[in-house]
What does this fold into?
Amino acid sequence: MSSQTTRTKRPSTRNAVLADDLGVLTEGSDSTEYGLRQQLLEKDKQNDKLSDRIHELQEQLAQRPSLEDVMKLRREYQNLDLLLQGTQRENERCMAELERAKTREKLLEKELANLVGDNWQTNLGLSPGPAAVRSSHAPRMRQFGFQAETSEPASPPIEGEVNPTGMQSAQLEHLENIRMLVLGMDQKLSSRADTLEKLVQRADSELAKVKQASVALQGS
It folds into this structure.
């Protein structure tokens, strides 16, 4: 009887141990599954973020100009840059020529002042008032020993003396040549100034185009 009881208790004890082990395994499996599910959720969130980022990049890529347009803008930028450099060199050349012309003009003005006087513009008929020029021209010429064409004829020169009329004519012709030279220089300087102004305007326009092309390239 007692051995039978002992045999009955042993299987029950073994079943209890197996149930405890199964419970431990079940709890461990639930914990592992929960951890895996959490990792899966995190991976899903990361995939969603990456998908959003890819979508944004695709939209930005669609808004960017094509490679052909970028190359066209680059070529246009290079051409404008070369044109700007050429315009700047032309401006420098014109400025240097203008400075040389001003220097020559100052030398001529100094020479005219020595020959005719400080009021050489009025005496040579370069001032805007023609009446005043004519009225002041004759006295100034007489002051330097010149005579107007309407003056009384001079007495015949004495043999052996220098003919003053010939000297006066030569001096008047020389002054007239200087006057025409000054007028020509004034006209040339005015023309050069207009050309220089147009070149400066062109350079400003080309510089604005270069800046626009540079901004477009930086944006691409």
Q: What stands out?
A: The chain has five helices and no strands. The radius of gyration is 52 Å. Residues 1-63 form one domain.
